Amino acid sequence: MMRSRYVHKLFMNILCLLVGLIVSFPVIYCVGVSFMSASDLSSYPPKLFPSTLYWENYKTVFTSTPILLFMWNSFLIASIGTIGRLITSSLAAYAFAFFDFKGKHFWFLIILGTMMIPGDMLIITNYITVANMKLINTYAGIMIVMIASATFMFMLRQHFKTMPRDFRDAAFVDGCGDLRFFLNILLPMSRSVLSSIFIASFIGLWNAYLWPLLVTNTEHMRTVQVGITMLQFEESMVYGPVMAGVTVILIPSVFIFLAFQRQLVQGITFSAIKG
Length: 275
Hints:
Layout: H1 2-34, H2 38-41, H3 56-64, H4 67-98, H5 104-114, H6 123-132, H7 139-143, H8 150-161, H9 165-173, H10 178-189, H11 191-206, H12 210-215, H13 224-227, H14 239-259, H15 261-274
Helix pairs in contact: 1-14, 3-14, 4-8, 4-11, 11-15
């Protein structure tokens, strides 16, 4: 019995390791190519790792493009947009989870219905609205369509519904109002879900390309995903600098994940114990 458990555990560990390697292989190859010279890139058979570290690719990234300015623009947009989404989504989710008002289910279905509308269908309407508001080439023009998210509101509403109403009733008996209960009790108990939403939203806004491309037409307002295309030259495709640029812009996403990893693990552990 013990032997079969050991074999099963070993098999699952090996399987998880293989899946992890398959999923992370594009990132590993991207980092490897970023350190390759032109001779390594044109060699046959193709190389996974460079023969020597070729730092000129990274030098090209920082000298041919204002990559740090692009990263700052993306960081500012992703941070403020994510915080805005957390505020609007959590407040709306709290209302739909704990309040009783006329048309509650109807408006909730309306919000869910917006999740079925492809974002590309709204681009022209959103652009006209932003242009009429004189917000072209501004941070507000980029972020205004990112402040609210029906998906995250739905996720938080479903999570809040799992919270026993006795918590809220007991807090109200002790003189706690809705705002205090929301800030001091409900949000700390929802830290793992909020961390997951923060990571998903930040990475999604960090990787946004089409909308920032449409509403910005000056270099100092470009985001990193738009600016990285400046490393593609018309005469040829230079893969080394492009991969170096991609590696650089991956760093904030990795940092955000590592920063919230502990909360994610705690949330998963808590959910397993609760289940």
